[in-house]
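Shipment paperwork, digital attachment
Item: protein structure file
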Amino acid sequence: MSREDPDVIDSVEKAFRLLQVFSAERSAMTVSDAAAATGFTRATARRILLTLERLGFAESDDRHFRLTARVLRLGYGYLAALPFWEHAQPHMRELADELRESCSMATLDGPEIVYVARVPASRSMSITLNVGSRLPAYPTSMGRVLLAALPETELRSYLDGVELEPLTPHTITDAAELRAELRRVAELGYAVVDGEREEGVRSAAAPVRGAGGRTLAALNVSVNAARVSLDELRERFVPRLLETADAITQDIAGLH
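Attachment content:
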């Protein structure tokens, strides 16, 4: 048990911390790599990796450990429990087909958004994102919709702890300016971001709500800036986006 919190099991916490250091850039690790990435001792990292291997969540050759497909069971349990998963997909496909642009849905996880549904555009874009992809919340339209819905204490904690990096020359990097933008998002009921996470990419997002009007997720449409002007995004895309988000919200309400 944890010395700081008797209700927390240290070994379980450490196992999940180690699982999270695997990534596209770090898909295979030695025991030394895992120890360095987590700050654990080599002995601790080794025991966790061997336990994951014993349970089928990891595999290894002589030196390197990799995650297996069994890890997806953990994420699938979450997705299967989402109240909007199956109900959102038909609406998202319809919107993506009509606008011929990608449509995505995300939830907030700490300082990041996590994609929980995605319908790619029929034509390719410069970014490749899938269910499970993570992005920082502050420079994204979905992130701003989700941040704007946070209670004041949670938003203050987020702004106090986040590092607002200038990902492009257009990224908002001042906390006061970001807070003001989030107030505008809350008032408008949607967010528009123009090249703040990646130059040449514009997006708009709207909230998907559950019982009591609580924001459960954000729905967005992303476009290539060379193809869709900011005015067109606001005047043609945003109204359809809002209609789609409302339709999903109504479907969710019908579940109860």
